Amino acid sequence: MAAPIEVLITSDVSGQLWNSCIWDLNSGASLSCYKGDATNHRSLCILGGQYLLGASCTKPLINVWALQRREQHQLKMICAGKVNSLTVTHDGTYCVAAVAENIHIWQVCTGNLLVVLTRHYQAVNVIRFTDNGSHFVSGGEDNLVMVWPLASVLTCIHNPSVKPEPLRIWSSHSLPVTDVHVGRGGAQSRVVSSSLDQTCKIWDIVSGDLLQTILFPGSVLSVTMDAAELRVFAGSSSGHVYCVHLYGQPIKFERHVEDQDPEGVICYKGHSKQVTCLCVSMDGSKLVSGSHDSSVKIWDIFSGQCIRTLPHKGHVTNTVIVPTPQAVLDPAVKPTLPLQSFKRHLVSERRDDTGADSRVLSLRIPSSLGREQKFEENLFDNQDGSVEMGTSEASKEELKRLKVINRELYTFAVDNILNKQVT
Amino acid sequence: MAAPMESMIEKLLNNSFQKYAVQRSGDLQLQSFVKVIETNKLLLKRDDEGSNDIVGYIHQCLNNSKQRYEGLILLGVLVKQSSTAIFQKNAVTWLKLLLNILQSHCPPPVHQACCKLLSQVIDHSDSFSDVSREVTSTFIPQLLPLLLTCEPGCLSAALTCVSMCIRKYPGPVGPFKAKLQTLVEQKLANGKNYEELYECFALLASCGSGGNLGIKHTEAWSELAEGVLASLHETLSCMYSDVDMGSGSSCTGKPLAGLPPIDFSHNDRVVALFKRWCSLTKCMQALLREDFNAVARVPADDILNIIFHCLSVNTNMLMSRPTSERSLLASFSQDVHIHALYLLQQLITLCGRNLIPQGVMIVSVLTQELSWSHSEGDGHDQHYGCLREVVFETLTVWIKALDACSSVKSGETTLVKEIIHDCLPYTYTLKMTSGLSTGSKTDKMTSGQGSRKGHKGKGYHEISQGISTQRKSQPLANHSLVKAALEALYWMLTTSGWEFSQKSLQSVQEFVIRSLLALHQAPLGSLPAPYADPSCRRGLYRVLSACVTSTHANVPPPVQVALGLFSAGLRDKHADVSSYCMEAMRLCEVLIHHRVPCLKGPVVCENLIQISGQNDQEPIVSHVINKSGNQAHISLETKNGYSDASSEFTRNEEAIAGRTAGNITYNGGFSEREIRKEKGKE
Where are the WD-type repeats located (chain A) (predicted)? Predict the structure, then answer.
């Protein structure tokens, strides 16, 4: 059987069977699972394709599993408080966690807590990175959505007098923000936020403009888009998942979606309770939804049919689709990413008491940086010289010729000088 | 198909081998024989008798002291092409034969080739368990003492071989580590300067057993890194002792033991310090580059401090109060900086986004470098051209590694200014001024736009190209600098163009459009320097496409002009340039034929109009002149041979962007204003 291109990772609140499980998206087969504790909403992520990170539901912990070590118990990182949401940059350099109304940022290779952002004034519900890891978006109970540029936030750590400020603060939601999805395009991407005020709003990071508001019949608890950003999917409190075609109709600034009005909208009905997590496969053909009715459903986006139901033991907290990590396929692969345990206190500028510099980076030097290919080219750069050496006949002849010339020169010079002196 | 091919190749091989080896009549010389084998891949995938003959012949050659070199060359070809079976069967024999050659007395070229060949065989050997066992147990202990004591002539080849041994068999090399380190440091101290030495130095950390999770290797690496850092620090403080920078950076590590202190009484102390600095930075680069099987603990902050310290002293500073030593140091300053920047590049490549917290510092250091090395172009290579080129390269490496986190926004104004300064196409201008009171003012008006108002109508200045033809011209002056600068600009726009200030982005757009127009208008065969170089032209088009694709909240992309410029670029003589224009045309085509309707229309730019309204004096003048058909005059008037027509282009662009946005009231206002302005002027 060929390896699956993408896998689905899910977790539920009970943690009875496992904490989180990796599924083959096509066959619905369970590939591997990771045990111990249970993972909170929107806090399951893969670090550098090698580790699975999940924040605990009940304790101030982040659990870490090396992906290839199935079933084995995990590493625990202790945080300042219960983590509401967790995310990492795509290259696994930084990890961002929401603890109550604060946002903590760790550098993975040193474990240093670089900065704690306090700008939201109520709990932060969700944090998402842009696809290039340059910005992250946070949404909170205080109805605000903020965009933070990682660069300027991290630069502030050298200058404590400057308080890091978000690039954008969007305050159009009238009730707490429940979910945020960041589209493609790095800093130029678009953000969809969902809220209990029954709306999804589409924002543009570059200009900070609100592009469109979509109004649903109920509170929206989860939102996502397909990669090409043609459709918005919204999971509602009633258990319905709405698929809104963004371009199917004349574009309006504000759009109302109703249950009985199917134009440009597909409603996926199947869940009996609120839908709390959504994700779309890479090719934009499958939608995965997780709900409080303890099931994960895989839908065909075009037909609206439910293809498969994966039963769980409690409220589903995370559904994540990722390209299959190498470690899932091959248990022999060892994690190479140096992961240090996250520190609880902010990093100081000075060296600590033990004399060790806490800011020394632990890194792998990838072999691609070396240049082994060089040998192939210049193995025998002096090949021509060698040939002359091999055929000593030629050099002997040359030597003979030179000797003759030398002798001639000598006799010529001597003769001339002597002759002159005589005359 | 396969069978006839096989038999044909076998025949070829037998025939040529017969011609070469058996007859020795001179039908086929060694060189041609090797060439025949290499081009036809005659030994590839052969594991039968046909190649057995050759293998036998090679062994015979290697055993015979007169034919050794010949044997080595043939073996080189064979190792490259041999099948698994042949390699497995003969590898140990080859290693022994090669070892014999190393032990015997031979001229340096033979030893050199032997070392290179050894490293190749060792490279392949670790795939075969029996061969690798042999190598580990008996071969390496015999080989390394030979390599370490080989003659200076073939040291580089020997070090290549040592490096390969460390890469493939780090354990068995362990006992020789101390000796090797002494040798390498000794050579470094003597100012030997080749890559193999640095590579070998970096690999020292991987020698011996690694312990649990390679902890010993990690410690060895840290020790080496600290040693180099301390030595770098020492060298730098020696070099800058005169300048007295005060703080610098403190360093706790122990300098490399093998490096003797620089002799202070010596005359060429500065030169020695400079050489030491070069080789130490290269050692550090090698440490940061060579693959390492354990976790490396990279003291990034300390390395950055050293680099910043090094860059903090520049030629201008040294020459402000010159002494003989300072002047000498100043003349090396550019190279010292370049080596520091190479080190910075390597550090960025390795650490990538982990350097985000230091981003603003790095960008500001790079901008400082550009500021102090700023010099006016005169159509020849710039004074600090090499340094600036490396700065731009470093900037490119930085942006590529960090994408939108690169903090270039912090130095954006200076960077854009310097890049545009370096990349302006150069045209000779000669100004003749007649005027009584404006004499002093004319000096100032080389490129400034504002100063032109003052004496309009008072005097006249004539710009002529005709008179200035008698010049030593350098059509490719600064071309590598310009290429690097344009590349940096491209990446700046691509990753962070959206957060540029409106003014910077407009100046970039204006620069690109003007330059390309100037290129299109230039007579064939005499493109302004350095745009005779196709890679520079391509770079310019790349920047234009970055302008088109980058989205900005206030500045509209110049799609209209870009389409025109790219289609003109299709006629470029050089295929690289024209093919790039084809690519870019596709891109623009996608932009103008949207695949889906747009949630957000093109930028509406009210405040743009405000800005051009404030200093509307100047553009209007150029408009009027343009309309009178005197465009050529304008193009000569500005220093770098631009046409002000492009500003009209950008303005049209804005107008059109407004129109497509469907903002009728705004657009109407704009055209009305325009008309009013023009009327008023007339």
Answer: 117-152, 170-213, 268-309
